[in-house]
Amino acid sequence: MPAAASWASRSAPSKRMAPPTPRPITKKASKLVIENKLPTVFGSYTSASRKAVLPVFEKRNSMYFYPTYYEGYECSRNVVYTGAVPNQQLSNFIPWIIKTLGKKTFFIVGSDYIYPREMAKVCKILIEKNGGKYVADEYLELGHSEWGSMVNKIKGSGCDVVLSNVVGDSVVAFYREYKNQGITHDKLPICATVTSEIEIAAMGAEYAVGSYTSFPYFQAIDLPENKSFIERYRAFVKDPKAVTHHAMCCAYFQVFLWKQAVEKAKDTSPNAIREAVRGQTYDSPRRTGEGRGREPPYLAHAAHRPMAGRWPGQDRGCLSGADHAPPLCGLWRDGEQPVLHAEGRRPAQTEGLRLRRAGFRRSCPTIRGPTMTAGPRFSHQREIR
Amino acid sequence: MSDVIFIGLSLGSILLLVALGLAITYGAMGVINMAHGDLVMVGAYTTVMSGIWLHLGFLASIPVAFVVTALIGLGVEKFIVRRLYGRLLDTLLATWGVAILLQQAVRLEFGVSFFGRHIEGLGSGLQKVNVPEWLQGSVTLLGVDINIYRAFIILVTLLATALTWFIMYRLPIGMQVRAIMRNPKMAAACGIDVARVNALTFAYGSGLAGVAGVMMSGFKTVFPRHGHAACRGRLPGGGRGRCRQPLRVPGRLGAARADQWRRGLPSATTSWRVRWYSASSS
User: Fold this and answer.
1) Identity of the residue in B89, B130, B270 whose CB atom sits nearest the CB atom of A204
2) Is residue A237 less than 8 Å (CB to CB) from chain B?
3) Is A20 in Cβ contact with B138 (below 8 Å)?
4) When comparing pLDDT for B128 and A289, which is higher?
5) So what's the pLDDT on residue A154?
6) Continuous H helices in B107-238
7) CB contact under 8 A, B239 and A46
């Protein structure tokens, strides 16, 4: 058969009509859930992968523990989200930048996909609430490594702080370009929400000295649990210099949450775990202060205590008076307090984004945890705009 | 304004550096080397590894990367491409296979630190290349902030281009390459060892990819998919996208044009949601 002819004839039209091929991760999830009949699967890394596997877990009623910080607007009955949602990284960070660092004019920059865009939305609400302003809200394609013109734009924008939601290896290119264009973090710091120990190690700490990141976990946290966690992780990967980071910490403690849930329920079925995992607390590596910092998951989300770190060294405690931030994975209506649902009032909501685009704004069923002391006020009502 | 021109110039020079090697192999022997991006990646890893194993600095690793990737290119030519001359689609497919092999081999040995596949001194996942102090930062020249590293890339690109021109137009081997370009059979009839010259050309093109890899490692991170963004552009959707790429490269060797085309593509074929979600994968 003439290869060239078949190629040419097959290119565009057939693609348009063909149903989308399932992604590899969907196939693998299907294998685990349907073929191997696993009641619980411990999660993946990106929002895209989570969205891709959700239907499998919901259809077969299997539990999925997802460890990465993500953009919110989702609350599936079948997922336990142990990473931070936007408000858990930002609700203390932005007031802290404005009040403590005294930086009021923000330049928001991010990679162009759902997570940074949702983060930016929450950022803007918080910036305005706290009396700051933002001069720009710019995005570059995910994985982009050509940051010259963006950094140039930042330089000429008149901002005094850069809020970065840049993700992945773009972070490295961004910070390197930032220094190479002669901007210092002392004058114009980058305050990042996604730049973790991994990216810092990959870019070289000299490029990040003086910049800030907000995360509930830092490798530098001085706790016996964390030290032993780092030690055992380094032994596991046989690398004495391996770094740990927030998503890794969540991936670690979520297994213990699951274990405690199973012990409580004496059952490994998804329904039992869903009920039993609520209110579980665990002394994870990021425990802070006395008696605080345990993990009270709010139905499906874990509580986090946000901290800001200054690179390198991630000096913690920069956020004075920060306490557990309850996960507000749903509603951030412009300029208003978030509203949370009472437990169990809404069915599983996986297409939050689609509905939001269609004019719905809704939040996630949530219950209060025992140790929640601060944070925005709740009102237990349903809210659809 | 002059800032923008400078940034554009440096962007163009990086693309030129990557495309130069590709253009040479395509022009000389009509072979599109799909593994070119992964040779860029190998060059970048050579920089990392020569720092760890040989304690070489950034500059000293440029010739090392050239030699390593040129040798790989020589091997690829000798064992694969040589058997497929004149069969454009087959060379595409074969070199694409080489690209996958290279990438996965690097991923297995250098890419992930789990399960004991770890090399002494390497960090996990993303690797870093230390750029010498004097190449960092910027200088102000006539009121324009010049990013030193970008200026350095432009310089290296100019040197590589000049060297290529010199080889092609001033050395006997260049004359032979040009003769083969015009008419391989006639060149062979005149006593030119076509196989040998082709192998050397392929090796030289691959070596340039290695140099491009060193340059790119200085402002990016190094990881197994390092060469992708530079050379092929990334199409959302992974597997499907990659099948399309063979068609794209011959159209225009410049990555910029391919990039543009790619941006237009998804809107015609997929909904915004698919695009948005799939952008965060890969």
Assistant:
1) B130
2) yes
3) no
4) B128
5) 92
6) 148-170, 172-182, 184-189, 194-217, 226-231
7) no
